[in-house]
Specification:
Layout lengths: L1 E6 L7 H12 L5 E6 L5 H15 L2 H22 L3 H28 L4 H8 L1 H16 L4 E4 L7 E2 L12 H9 L7 E5 L2 E4 L4 E3 L4 H12 L4 E6 L20 E3 H9 L11 H5 L4 E5 L8 E4 L11 E14 L9 H11 L4 E6 L5 E7 L3 H11 L7 E14 L9 H11 L4 E6 L5 E7 L3 H11 L9
Parallel strand pairs: 1-2, 1-8, 2-5, 3-5, 4-6, 8-10, 9-11
Antiparallel strand pairs: 6-7, 10-11, 12-14, 12-15, 13-14, 15-17, 16-17
């Protein structure tokens, strides 16, 4: 069986956890394995924060502090995870060389006082670049042959859109050529999230990048399954921090996972599993620290069974924009102009709703983009067509998801009856034609109560769901 195993930052947060992960991988040594690793927990965020500070303040002392912190963190992790002194020495030398190059880059940013998007990609890549040698060394120290590779060395070649690079058409072929000869001979440990363009310059794959790396590699080498090892026990019926009796969903479809991910569930980013979907590769979400639990299997088939709703999610940190005006009624292209203005401003639209009167359009955007979005819409409609434009950042979006909702009458009635029974005011409603989700906006103060009410209404707690 050919398996891709991807480990997130929480799974390899320190030396003890890396050592545990190596033993976990060793359980599956009879299979053909490729491992994809994230950075150690919080390292990438820390790198970018300090890089921004270096560009703004130009403090060499701050750079020295960061370099010392990273050297101590990764050397300590390697010392705990790797028992063989010869292998440990090799890994420490590799880490020292990479940290030296990082130091040079950050020092240059200090002197220039500038951090370009290309430089940000280079700096942020070092989280994975420092993690991969340690995990590979930990595998070798327990008797598993292993090599570590950067994303570029593994064949992931992208365009030059720094921060959110897209693989080129021939990337799958390049990955296959680079990794297939290694499969079965050793365990390649690939640094996720990072890649390179055709000129060999470091790029990064954006949000969900490490998962995307794993899915892309799995697609290229025709993996039997892709396993995402997380700190959670699969995909849940709701956020257990909000709903204590939330349960793991044993099996779910690709489309349901994409809906859940888009509407707030953080286990898998929608883009991350797109290559797996394209090649119909089953995906498993497993718990690194409870490996005997079956977790969640993600497949193409939409098993409806007796379950109408699979899960309830909430998106926070959003804002609602309402556009209204009598001049909008019967006027062709109003929505197109609004959406075009937001696209030109780089604002992503999360949800939309328009009344049948055509006199009102409601748009949900990320809260961080609210000011930019309002300015863009005002500028587009300077002619007075819009009578009123209001914005509310004190809102959250609630979504119920399930393939079993399609064609079943009364689901929406149950959703909004539950809201009424729990005194939750619904501000905006949106439902896709696929009928796989119903989404609506409520005040932030009501969000958790809404999630708990819906979780209870559809009987999602108390046992695993199928």
């Amino acid at each position: 069986m050919r398996l891709i195993m991807k480990f997130g930052g929480a799974s390899i947060a320190d030396g003890e956890k890396i050592k545990w992960v190596a033993e976990l991988i060793n359980r599956y040594r009879e299979h053909e394995l490729i491992v994809v690793t994230s950075a150690l927990k919080d390292v990438t965020d820390h790198l970018l924060e300090r890089a921004d500070a270096a560009a703004d303040a130009g403090s060499i002392e701050s750079v020295h502090e960061l370099i010392k912190h990273l050297r101590d963190l990764h050397n300590n992790a390697a010392g705990i995870a790797i028992n063989d002194p010869v292998i440990l020495d090799q890994v420490l030398n590799e880490l020292d060389g990479r940290i030296h190059r990082l130091n040079q880059a950050l020092t240059g940013i200090c002197y220039l006082g500038e951090l370009t998007s290309r430089s940000r990609d280079y700096i942020s890549s070092y989280g994975e670049l420092l993690a991969a040698p340690i995990l590979s060394g930990a595998l070798r120290s327990i008797g598993m042959s292993s090599v570590h590779l950067t994303g570029g060395e593994a064949g992931i070649v992208t365009n030059s859109r720094y921060g959110d690079a897209k693989p080129l058409e021939d990337t799958r072929e390049r990955i296959c050529q680079r990794l297939t000869p290694l499969i079965g001979k050793c365990v390649p440990v690939v640094a996720g999230f990072i890649a390179e363009n055709e000129h060999g310059i470091t790029t990064t794959l954006g949000r969900g990048g490490s998962d995307f790396s794993a899915s892309l590699i799995g697609s290229a080498v025709h993996a039997d399954e892709i396993w995402f090892w997380k700190k959670v026990s699969g995909i849940m019926t709701a956020d257990p921090k909000i709903v204590p009796d939330a349960r793991t969903i044993p099996q779910i479809s690709y489309i349901e996972v994409m809906e859940l991910s888009y509407f707030g569930a953080e286990v898998l980013h929608p883009r991350a599993i797109e290559p797996a979907i394209r090649n119909d590769i089953p995906v498993r979400v497993l718990n690194t620290f409870d490996p005997d639990f079956t977790g969640t299997l993600v497949v193409r088939d939409q098993q409806q069974g007796g379950v109408v709703v699979k899960a309830v999610t909430v998106i926070e940190d959003i804002a609602l924009i309402n556009i209204s005006g009598a001049g909008m009624v019967g006027t062709i292209g109003v929505a197109a102009r609004a959406f075009g203005a937001l696209a030109d401003a780089g604002v992503n639209i999360t949800m939309i709703s328009q009344g049948s009167s055509e006199a009102n359009i409601s748009i949900v955007v990320e809260e961080s983009n609210l000011a930019c979005a309002v300015d863009a819409i005002r500028a587009e409609f300077r002619n007075g067509m819009i009578r009123e434009l209001t914005a509310d950042a004190d809102v959250s979006a609630i979504t119920v998801v399930g393939a079993g909702m399609a064609g079943i009458p009364g689901v929406a009635a149950s959703v909004f009856t539950a809201m009424g029974e729990n005194n939750v005011n619904v501000i905006m409603i949106s439902q896709g034609s696929s009928e796989h989700n119903i989404s609506f906006v409520v005040g932030s103060k009501d969000a958790k109560r809404a999630v708990r009410a819906l979780h209870s209404k559809f009987g999602l707690g108390g046992r695993d769901r199928r």
